[in-house]
Write a structure and sequence with these properties.
mainly alpha
């Protein structure tokens, strides 16, 4: 008869996946508060745009660059409390930010918040792989959707809670971090059992599923995936950061109307994120990657020349198609190196955030030099890089 410990160690439960998705939801919601309060901090502390840029740089470095390093640590020294440590770092950062009275205090605060994200993303993604019960694509989709909704809700809550009442009300989000900490208890218990079953001396040996590829082919495939990540997140940065400005400049819509169009795009992206994983489980991740990146190209190329109605329609289609890629790319990479799940998760999450942040800054400079409409004509070609997906091998992991 199968024991409770064995069942817990297998992790094939939707309850654990939902808890991990909730952890992603809280993390991305709290992280999104940082950018949302930049205008308030600028006014309260009389900061220049250059100083705001330095704050953003510190946050981006701590939120992305450290992720692969933490991922390596988690692979080598698994412990059940890493997610709690990440949340505590975010909590401390938010408390400091709520009462920060200087530029350096703000930098220290956002560094703590960023480090919390660098801990939570690779560890939670790694645990999602373990808790998938073999349905890795579905599991990553469930996990990613939590983050998508968190990113969308965070700025809205900041507008309702912080903007009307002031900087000190950032402490309310520190209270939300405490709630997030409590919701991680089921994950901690489950992972304790898993470590006890699989990772202690004399314990049960865990089956590792490997792909039949040479090291050279594996690393070549990872390089292709990184090119696809670059393509996806440069184009995504143009939409998430400048879509409202594009609609206002080209069609003369109100700010409120442009935000509704952005919400439609973000909602479509959340749906596409959820669908991409299970479809990849069924038909193969290479085909989802191919369709998601390259399949966006016809719509992205049409959008700069479309009317307002068709721009909205095309943006929804782009959100559905393009967002399905990340879960498939991440799981494909994890299957290439199944013993380095933390490293892979940290590398791909870190690059996604880093590329998005750098792209947003570069595209802003391009918009200043030319126009926002020029940005969309330029970025429309990025999905064509999806052509490199043809070089990805069809991987079939085997026990080993």
């Amino acid at each position: 008869m199968e024991t409770n410990t064995t069942r817990a160690a297998s992790g094939a439960t939707m309850g654990v996946l939902l808890a991990l998705s909730l952890a992603h939801f809280f993390n991305d919601m709290l992280q999104s508060v940082i950018a949302a309060v930049y205008p308030l901090l600028k006014e309260n502390l009389s900061l220049s745009f250059r100083q705001i840029g330095r704050i953003a740089l510190v946050y981006q470095i701590c939120a992305s660059v450290f992720q692969p390093a933490f991922g390596v640590l988690f692979d080598k020294r698994p412990m059940p409390y890493y997610l709690a440590v990440g949340t505590c770092s975010t909590l401390a950062g938010l408390l400091v930010l709520a009462y920060a009275g200087s530029l350096f205090a703000v930098m220290g605060a956002v560094a703590l918040v960023g480090l919390g994200s660098s801990i939570i993303h690779p560890e939670a993604s790694r645990l999602t792989h373990y808790a998938s019960g073999g349905r890795h694509g579905l599991a990553q989709s469930v996990f990613q959707v939590g983050g998508n909704f968190g990113s969308a809700i965070g700025p809205l809550l900041a507008a309702l809670i912080i903007t009307p009442h002031g900087q000190n009300y950032i402490a309310v989000f520190a209270g939300i971090a405490v709630v997030s900490l409590l919701t991680k208890r089921p994950i901690t218990r489950w992972y304790k059992n898993r470590i006890r079953t699989f990772d202690t001396p004399g314990g049960k040996r865990e089956t590792v599923h490997r792909v039949r590829l040479s090291k050279k082919k594996i690393y070549f495939s990872l390089g292709i995936l990184l090119v696809l990540i670059f393509s996806k997140y440069v184009y995504t940065a143009s939409l998430t950061n400048y879509y409202t400005f594009y609609l206002i400049e080209k069609f003369g819509v109100t700010t409120r109307q442009s935000q509704l169009f952005l919400f439609a795009f973000l909602l479509a992206s959340a749906v596409g994120t959820f669908l991409g994983g299970p479809i990849g489980d069924r038909i193969g991740r290479k085909y989802v990657i191919w369709f998601s990146i390259l399949g966006t190209a016809p719509f992205s190329l049409m959008m700069p020349y479309a009317s307002l109605f068709w721009t909205c329609v095309l943006s929804v289609v782009i959100g559905l198609v393009l967002s399905s890629a990340f879960s498939a790319i991440l799981v494909y990479a994890q299957e290439l190196l199944p013993t380095k799940l933390g490293l892979i998760s940290g590398l791909f999450f870190g690059l996604a955030f880093g590329i998005a942040g750098i792209a947003a800054a570069v595209l802003g400079d391009i918009a200043d030099l030319h126009s926002v409409e020029y940005v969309y004509r330029f970025c429309a070609y990025m999905p064509l890089l999806g052509l490199v997906a043809v070089f990805l091998p069809n991987v079939r992991p085997v026990k080993g």
